[in-house]
Amino acid sequence: GLVGGAIYWLWSNTVHNLEVRRIATGFDFLGREAGLPIAESLIPYDPSMTYLRALTVGVLNTLKVAVVGIVLATILGTFLGIARLSRNWLVAKLAYWYVEIVRDLPLLLQLLFWYALLQGLPGPRQALNPIEGVYLSNRGLKLPFFVWEAAHSWALLAFALGVVATLLYRRAMRARQMRDGAPRRVWPFALLAMLGAPLAVWAALGAPFTPDVPVLRGFNFRGGVDVSPEFFALLLGLTLYTAGFIAEIVRAGILSVHQGQWEAAQALGLPRGRVMNLVVLPQALRVIIPPMTSQFLNITKNSSLAVAIGYQDIVSIANTTLNQTGQAIEGIAIIMLVYLTISLSISLFMNWYNAKIALVER
User: Fold this and answer.
1) Does 247 score more than 90 pLDDT?
2) For residue 152, how far is the Cα from the chain centroid?
3) How far is Cα 88 from Cα 108, in angstroms, rounded to an integer?
4) Are 54 and 321 contacting, i.e. CB atoms less than 8 angstroms apart?
5) What are phi and psi of 82, to 5 degrees?
6) Burial of 87 by CB count in 10 Å (0-12 exposed, 13-18 middle, 19+ buried)?
7) Apex CA 71: angle with CA 194 and CA 312, to 5°?
8) Can you say whether the dihedral through the CA atoms of 339, 57, 111, 347 is positive or negative?
9) pLDDT by residue (tens digit) across 186-222?
10) Residue 156 CB partners (closer than 8 Å, separation 6+)
């Protein structure tokens, strides 16, 4: 009753204050023309479209940096965590100092540092060219790509179906092995399903594989795929910063595995790399996954700092929207709803995976 009364009081007080100040409420503004320029978008957009379309672009931009950042930070953090336990003194110390320095510097400062560094690069005419077809300048990163057609989409769908088929086949083969004890190879089926089938679809539909290489024309590059300085700096900062925390989580998870597991695996003649992959990491995952979920959520929420370097995510676009329309409550509510939905989705998936790999007690 107290909670319900408090909610009612807050709601009625808000409605009263809005009426006194003659501030219109509601989400009707979402259907109006935005007139808001957005530099990069995963879907077609121009300023003549609605605010709803602009906010959708912001959500997709947030998801883009969050998903890519989670993948890259997990890979880098895992390698750093293993490197911290390396027998090589130099490798272990380099990983140690990386983790200590990165974790002690504020993320916003790191984002500003990387963005200023990218802005200080030479222009397109003097762009850095470390690899053929790859150019790095103050306009961002230019990468070669290939002309995407419908046949490529079908090939990608075939690959996704091949992954699902391989997982189902692997489960069936493991069940048979548990019954009769005879090991069965999965990689021939996986090679056929995940590589052979997509290639067959690609060849049957006649999809071209013409690379679109960036070429300098005038004052900028044309062709290829463009990674803007804002997105590059944000992704770099989030990845490097979060990888330091993930490295410590991975290190703690590995150290939680009893030393007897190492000794038993080495007694069987397994090399150290195989011991790590087959014995230690599968057990360490039960310790790693819960705190790793928090880091995935942190990447998503920390992406809101993109407004400091000009990357137009949901926070940046929603702020501009509420400044233009005056719908402050609705704008803040949209931001909260987006981050709440993304965070709950990540939490649900990670909790499901954590339950899947948990030890089943008898």
Assistant:
1) yes
2) 23
3) 33
4) yes
5) -70, -35
6) exposed
7) 120
8) positive
9) 888 888 888 888 888 887 877 666 777 777 777 777 7
10) 198
d(CA 223, CA 214): 5
Chain centroid to CA 34: how far? 28
Mean pLDDT of 4-30: 82
pLDDT at site 360: 56
Q: Over range 113-126, report the average pLDDT.
A: 86
Contact 346, 293 (CB under 8 A): yes
Select from 71, 42, 217, 210 the least CA-distant residue to 142. 217
Within 13 Å of residue 74, how many CA atoms lie on the same side as its CB? 16
Q: For residue 123, what are the CA distances in angstroms to 166, 170, 189, 355?
A: 47, 51, 49, 51
Residue 163 CB coordination number (10 Å) = 13
State percent of the chain over pLDDT 90: 34
Q: What backbone torsions phi and psi does residue 42 show, to the nearest 5 degrees? A: -80, -15
Let me know: does 285 contact 293? Beta carbons within 8 Å. Answer: no
Q: What are the tens digits of pLDDT across the range 54-85? A: 999 999 999 999 999 999 999 999 999 999 98
Tokens for 129? 């060219």
**CB-CB contact of 172 with 190 (8 Å):** no
Residue 326 has which token pair?
């005056």
Strands (E), the chain: 128-131, 134-137, 140-143, 145-146, 211-212, 215-217, 220-222, 225-227
